Amino acid sequence: MNTEQSSIWHERAKQVIIGGVNSPSRSFKAVGGESPITISKAQGAYLYDVDGNRYIDYLAAYGPIIAGHAHPHIVEQVNLAMSEGSLYGTPTPYETLFAERLQAVIPELERIRFVNSGTEAMMSVIRVARAYTGRSKILKFAGCYHGHADLVLVAAGSGPSSLGVPDSAGVPASVAEEVVTIPYNDVSALEAVFAARENEFSCILIEPVVGNFGIVTPDDGFLEAVRLVATQYGALLIYDEVITAFRFRFGAVQYNAVEPDLMALGKIIGGGLPIGAYGGKQAIMEQVSPLGPAYQAGTLAGNPLSMRAGMACLDVLMQPGTYEALAKKADILTKEIHAAANTYGIPHTINRYGGAFTLFFGERPVRTYQDAVHTDGKQFASFFHAMLRRNVCLAPSKYEAWFLTIAHSDDDIAHTVTAVQESMRELQSLQ
Ligand SMILES: *Cc1c(COP(=O)(O)O)cnc(C)c1O
Fold first, then answer.
1. Burial group, residue 319, by CB count within 10 angstroms (0-12, 13-18, 19+)
2. Is 267 annotated as catalytic?
3. Its pathway (predicted)?
């Protein structure tokens, strides 16, 4: 496969854009190789690079593209919105219509505020929790990603109840000291933290199903324990559903029917346009200005383009059978991957939930971030490149997921299975 033009574009990009990418996860730093593929067009389940190669896409732009690329209904609605002006700086019916639709399927969203990214939604919702509780500390779980605001770029300290340390240069130690990070699925660490720091926490942040150290579902009773502890100590429970909402079912994740106090959304609800949203209990959301003292604003927030793209995406997803079909495709694919890996003696673990899954190279189950860290990154990198050479595009990191979309056809799945079989054989020959 010729990817010469991709390399040329990447070299050119590096002269003007820092690192040649506008988000570090797009670089191939984690998997090696000279340059990422440069994509200039996408349609349905396919990405087309600048050399004219076509790839079956399981990256789905890290989640949002669940309807496939350039879905005709979304394109039509966005074109219409554009022709009527993309930004007014005033209220518009579209934001209210969209909020009503979200609330109808996610009743926990008694009041909503739209923003422009998942990062912004998380940053804002934490502020609201702090304003409401009058407390400053936050508790989060290792490996869960909540965007790139200072407060959530904090790594675990030395013990379960110890304060965090900056996970990025430029994050002040004073900010990191506001955060405690403990392992996912670890009820005893959770209880130990609250026993040690009783009433210090404003909130607990959690991905109710994890999408950011691979797909990981909570153990039985884990979310219940988190809810119980939050209620007991007066901390708010915040679900970060930026990646999960509308991914596994039409609405929020609703795993074990545990109810959060506040929630952040993003990705899929924008139909491929920039978006974030947060909301929850009315009494808590009344902290937000102009009603309350917690300030949060945005020039582009609730813009009619994102609102109408989001509604169009929901129109597509609400068709009967959507989620059953996504889950079925993922089920077929994971069974075939499992069989191929076994045929060629490649140790692996597959975590699947609905239409998304992660293939880990390693035999042990993955329930925590540390489990994911210990899987084989070198083997993943070889597999990633072997698949890319066979025109299948995966996320370039062992911590990401494969996302099925409405656009993936039986033929696409069959081609992918063949590519997996050949790639696994290649891995065996490397051993
Ligand atoms: C992607 C993601 C974010 C950040 O959203 P952006 O739109 O990239 O800022 C936050 N939380 C979770 C769970 C995510 O998957």
1. exposed
2. yes
3. Porphyrin-containing compound metabolism; protoporphyrin-IX biosynthesis; 5-aminolevulinate from L-glutamyl-tRNA(Glu): step 2/2
> Of 57, 150, 186, 240, which one is the catalytic site residue?
240
CA distance 341 to 333: 12
User: Closest ligand 1 atom to the C-alpha of 62?
Assistant: 1
Q: Which atom of ligand 1 lies closest to the CA of 147?
A: 4
The DSSP string of 368-412 is SHHHHHTS-HHHHHHHHHHHHHTTEE--SSTT--EE--TT--HHH
Report the distance separating Cα 152 and Cα 226, nearest Å.
19
Whole-angstrom distance, CA of residue 356 vs CA of residue 229: 30
H or E segment to which residue 349 belongs: strand 349-353
Assign domain 72-317 to its CATH architecture. Answer: 3-Layer(aba) Sandwich (3.40)
Question: Where are the domains positioned within the chain?
Answer: 4-70+320-430, 72-317
For residue 114, the surrounding DSSP H or E stretch is: strand 111-115
Q: What is the pLDDT of residues 208-235, one digit of tens each?
A: 999 999 999 999 999 999 999 999 999 9
To the nearest 10 degrees (0 to 180), the angle between helices 72-83 and 304-317 is 160
Q: Is 394 exposed, middle or buried (0-12, 13-18, 19+ CB in 10 A)?
A: buried
Count Cβ atoms below 10 Å from residue 149 Cβ, excluding itself.
Answer: 16
Q: Please check whether residue 128 is in contact with residue 262, taking contact to mean a CB–CB distance below 8 angstroms.
A: yes
Q: Which atom of ligand 1 is nearest to the CA of 120?
A: 9
Protein residue closest via CA to atom 8 of ligand 1: 118
pTM for the complete prediction?
0.97
**d(Cα 391, Cα 415) in Å, to the nearest integer?**
9
Pocket residue to mutate for ligand 1, from 148, 207, 212, most atoms within 8 A of Cβ: 212
| Alpha-carbon distances of 312 from 51, 304, 307, 327, 403, rounded to whole Å | 32, 12, 9, 22, 20
Q: How far is the CA of 145 from the centre of ligand 1 (A)?
A: 7
The yes-or-no answer on residue 398 being catalytic is no
CA 427 to ligand 1 center in whole angstroms? 32
Name the burial class of residue 91, with classes exposed (0-12), middle (13-18) and buried (19+) by CB atoms within 10 angstroms of its CB: exposed
Q: What are the pLDDT digits (tens) for 250-297?
A: 999 988 778 999 999 999 999 999 999 999 999 999 999 999 999 999
CATH number of 4-70+320-430: 3.90.1150.10
